[in-house]
Every structure is written in structure tokens, then in C-alpha cells.
UniProtKB/TrEMBL annotation:
K(+) binds at residues 66, 128, 164. Its EC number is 4.2.1.136, 5.1.99.6. It comes from Luteimonas kalidii. Pfam families: Carb_kinase, YjeF_N. It catalyses: (6S)-NADHX + ADP = AMP + phosphate + NADH + H(+); (6R)-NADHX = (6S)-NADHX; (6R)-NADPHX = (6S)-NADPHX; (6S)-NADPHX + ADP = AMP + phosphate + NADPH + H(+). Residues 18-218 form the YjeF N-terminal domain. Its cofactor is Mg(2+); K(+). Belongs to the NnrD/CARKD family. This is Bifunctional NAD(P)H-hydrate repair enzyme. The gene is nnrD. Keywords: ATP-binding, Isomerase, Lyase, Metal-binding, Multifunctional enzyme, NAD, NADP, Nucleotide-binding, Potassium.
């Protein structure tokens, strides 16, 4: 855990930090219940702002303090004249002292509590207050039945703090999970709500700090969120007297027979992201296509890995893996690149070859695995990686002593002694072959500018994701990697209107 956040980005917190903030706030307010009252009131204000005309509200309350927040919200809704009631399973009667107090206050205000019977009557909105940040296990059978009914209701769903069933630290769902329309985070942004399964569960996100800013400033940071707003002015512009050598020389290695498109995409991205020179080492049969597609790149058709040495010597950064293959040709080029002292960006088959024979990597190496490649490197299953993406990225970074970009929804960037970054950009349309090859070229180009490995990985991953969002303006389905090339150029120069 790291206490000092970076100046750019939004700090994210884990459950342990949030518990500490809660304790600090309770001490400051002099009453544990005062913070719950604030949470309920903030949730009611958020509900009114989002659904101002709603009249019939059902609040599904669980047994803990998240349920207590739900009782408080329902009390405010009831006192405002709305048709509001609490639904719960008998086994989910309040268990904590605060939830019991909130339940009693709700009853004394004339509030109604009904047993859940598989439906929500004539409700217009469901408020999910089943489980909060403390849940890290699969919901039991009764809770799963409620969650299934919420998801099948067709009603808008407002989750308090976290969609029930989602692990707020890991971003994974070990069992059933509520698919919220809108989620209000309480006190601080939660690390797990920005990666992994959270992307399909949270809906839109909002935050109510409950006046806890002073306590937040003292709390340890679990990760830092990077969004489109953080990209502007983050990539240095060229000096007015710049020449091509100032922007570095990227060598892209890959494209075994039949796989030439991947390395061409990496080269395209490196050029569009500002590399001064880009060379491509590939099979000879791919060079004519390279020259026809991108004459600005210097193509080298190599059947013999021995001819790679002079290309490595001239390069500032080496990107290895797109279309490389795992046969003798690709393995020989892979071994020579790893034996060089050049800064490396490894992707695709370079990672699969590394998983077959682990070795010490040069300082400043950047790995860009998707979850399947990360699983092979770690000896895990893909499901195990996705169950705790933060832990997987951190373990890879420590194992290889390098920077790791764990791709996927909520891409993570990790490195030893660094606070992990979460990329809060990108979209499902980018789940298509070739997108990772573009990312390799993006990162390699920024590394060639002279950025250190962690900075290049963070900025490159964010640039790639933001360009993907821009390219998806006309729709996500059917999005192609080459569609990102124009937006990459726009955003590497500061974004629209820069």
C-alpha cells in the first residue's frame, strides 16, 4: 500500500482504507450513526437527481451497514410522500448495531418492511442495499435469488456504494452480482469498481464523500484512476527545432509467415504516436505489403536471425511479439531481442515464448499481456487472473522486475514500488484482433521519446484507450484497429482543439 498519490489521476481506495476513514469520521462526528445518516441523505439526493419523477420505490436491504444506508434512504423517501418500502429476506434482518438503529428509525417514521416474494409489485425503481464493500464471497442462495430477481425485473437499479455481489477491492464477482443502472460510491472511489467485471455491473458511477475529504487525505491509496481528462497535455510536444532523431527509433519484430498484419499495425501505431523512425523486421514476404501500406516504415525481410544484430544496434526501443509465432523463426528473433540491452516492449507471442522459458529481463522492460497470457506467465488459470487483476498484475511485475500492462476492461499498469494505475477509458468494441498490436506500437513510440518505462506504459495505455473511444463514436461493433490511427494522432498531439 502506498500513501502518496501521483499528481495526475484520481486516487482509489480499498475496503481497509475505507474502514479507517469511517472510523476517523465517526470519531470526528462523535456518533457512529451520524455517518450512516449522511450516507442515507446523500443517497436520497442522488436518487432524486437521477430519477426526479419516481414515485414508487423498493429498497432491498441486507443485514449489514449497507442495508442500514438503505433503511435511511427509504425513510427519507417515505417522509417525502413517495410510495417507498423495504424488501428483505427474513435471514437478512439487521445484524449490526447501526443497521438495527436505522431500521428502528425507519419503522418509527411509519415505514413498511415486507418479506421478499420474488417480485417488486408496481415499483418504478429498485434500490440495491444488500451488500457493501465488505462482501468478498459468493452470495448465499437466498441472496442469489434476490439478485436474480433484481436483474430480471427490467427496472432501473440504484446500487448503494457497490453493486451487491461485486468485490469492491478486486473488481470480480465470485457469484451472482447485481447489474446496476447507477452506483453511488460513498466516502471515496473504490479500486475494484474500475476494472474487471465491474465494467458490466456498476452502470454509471457517482461519488458522495460525506465531507470526509480530510480523512481521505490521510488514507493509503490502493490505485490511481486515469481517464481521458488526464491525457490532455500529458504527452510532451516536440520542440520547434526538433529532428527525427529526437523522437527515437522503434524496431518492431514480428510477422512470421501468414501473420504479417500484426507487426504492420504495431509499426503504424508507432509512427502515428510520434516515433521519429520505425523499422520492421519480418518475413521477406511481408515487406511488399508493408511498403504499399506504410512507405514511411523501413521494412527488412529476414529469414536468418543473425541479420537482426545491426537493426538492434540502431534501435532505441524494440517492440517484440506481434505476429511473431512460437516456431523456430520467432523464437530465434525473440531470444536475440531479449539478449540485447535495448528497452523492450513485449506482447503476444513474445509473452508466450517467455512463459515457456522464464528468464531475467532487461531493466525497463514492459510486458503487455491479456488475461490469458498473464495466466500462462504466472502458471494460473485465466479465471484466477480475472478474480484478482490487481494481485495478478502486481505479482507479474515483481516476478519479472518490470512494468506490466494487464489488458482488459479497466487495464492495469503495475510496476515494483509504484502505485498501480487503472485506465478508465476504452470500450468493448476494442475486443478484436490487432488492438493489442496497436498498443505495443503506442507504448514503444512513447518510450522512444525518452519517457521511463512506467510513464510510457501509463500514457500509452491511456492514449490507446482514449483513441478507441473516439473511434467508436459511430458504434462499437465493427470497430477495427486501423480505425484508431487517426484518433491516435489527434490525442498524441493533445486532443481535439489542442
Amino acid at each position: 500500500m502506498y500513501a502518496v498519490p501521483a499528481p495526475r489521476g484520481t486516487p482509489l481506495y480499498d475496503a481497509a482504507a475505507l474502514r479507517g476513514i469511517e472510523a476517523s469520521m465517526a470519531t470526528r462526528l462523535g456518533d457512529d450513526f451520524a455517518l450512516m445518516a449522511r450516507a442515507g441523505q446523500a443517497a436520497w439526493r442522488e436518487l432524486l437527481a437521477r430519477w426526479p419523477d419516481v414515485q414508487r420505490i423498493v429498497v432491498v436491504c441486507g443485514p449489514g451497514n449497507n442495508g442500514g444506508d438503505g433503511y435511511e434512504l427509504c425513510r427519507y423517501a417515505h417522509e417525502s410522500g413517495r410510495d417507498a418500502r423495504v424488501l428483505r429476506i427474513d435471514a437478512h434482518a439487521p445484524r449490526t448495531a447501526l443497521a438495527q438503529r436505522a431500521c428502528q428509525a425507519y419503522r418509527e417514521a411509519g415505514g413498511r418492511i415486507k418479506a421478499f416474494d420474488d417480485g417488486f409489485g408496481r415499483a418504478q425503481l429498485v434500490v440495491d442495499a444488500l451488500f457493501g464493500i465488505g462482501l468478498s464471497r459468493e452470495p448465499d442462495a437466498d441472496a442469489a435469488r434476490v439478485i436474480d430477481a433484481i436483474n430480471a425485473s427490467g427496472l432501473p437499479v440504484f446500487s448503494l456504494d457497490v453493486p451487491s455481489g461485486l468485490d469492491a477491492d478486486r473488481g470480480s464477482a465470485p457469484g451472482r452480482v447485481v447489474h446496476a443502472t447507477h452506483t453511488l460510491q460513498l466516502l471515496a472511489p473504490h479500486a475494484g469498481l474500475y476494472t474487471g467485471a465491474a465494467a458490466r455491473c456498476t452502470g454509471s458511477l457517482a461519488l458522495a464523500t460525506l465531507d470526509a475529504e480530510e480523512a481521505l487525505a490521510q488514507a493509503p491509496v490502493a490505485a490511481i484512476r486515469l481517464g481521458q481528462e488526464d491525457l490532455r497535455d500529458w504527452i510532451p510536444l516536440r520542440a520547434r527545432d526538433a529532428h527525427k532523431g529526437d523522437s527515437g527509433h522503434v524496431l518492431c519484430i514480428g510477422g512470421d509467415t501468414g501473420k504479417g498484419g500484426a507487426v504492420l499495425l504495431a509499426a503504424d501505431a508507432a509512427l502515428r504516436c510520434g516515433a521519429g523512425l520505425v523499422s520492421v523486421a519480418t518475413r521477406p514476404g511481408h515487406v511488399p505489403a508493408l511498403l504499399a501500406r506504410r512507405p514511411e516504415a523501413m521494412g527488412h525481410g529476414l529469414d536468418d536471425a543473425g541479420a537482426l544484430a545491426p537493426l538492434l544496434e540502431r534501435a532505441d526501443v524494440v517492440a517484440v511479439g506481434p505476429g511473431l509465432g512460437q516456431e523456430a523463426w520467432g523464437a530465434a528473433f525473440h531470444d536475440l531481442a531479449l539478449a540485447s540491452t535495448k528497452p523492450l516492449v513485449l506482447d503476444a507471442d513474445a509473452l508466450n515464448l517467455l512463459a515457456r522459458r522464464t528468464r531475467v529481463l532487461p531493466a525497463g522492460t514492459i510486458l503487455t499481456p491479456h488475461p490469458g497470457e498473464a495466466a500462462r506467465l504466472l502458471g494460473f488459470t485465466t479465471a484466477e487472473v480475472q478474480a484478482n487483476r490487481f494481485a495478478a498484475a502486481r505479482l507479474l511485475a515483481e516476478m519479472f522486475g518490470c512494468v506490466v500492462v494487464l489488458k482488459g476492461a479497466g487495464t492495469l499498469v503495475a510496476a515494483p514500488e509504484q502505485v498501480p494505475r487503472v485506465i478508465a477509458a476504452g470500450n468493448p468494441g476494442m475486443a478484436v484482433g490487432g488492438m493489442g498490436d496497436l498498443l505495443t506500437g503506442c507504448i514503444a513510440a512513447l518510450r522512444a521519446l525518452g519517457l521511463d518505462a512506467f510513464d510510457a506504459a501509463c500514457r500509452g495505455a491511456l492514449l490507446h484507450a482514449v483513441a478507441g473511444d473516439a473511434a467508436a463514436a459511430d458504434g462499437e461493433r465493427g470497430l477495427l484497429p486501423s480505425d484508431l490511427l487517426g484518433p491516435l494522432r489527434t490525442w498524441v498531439n493533445g486532443g481535439p482543439g489542442a
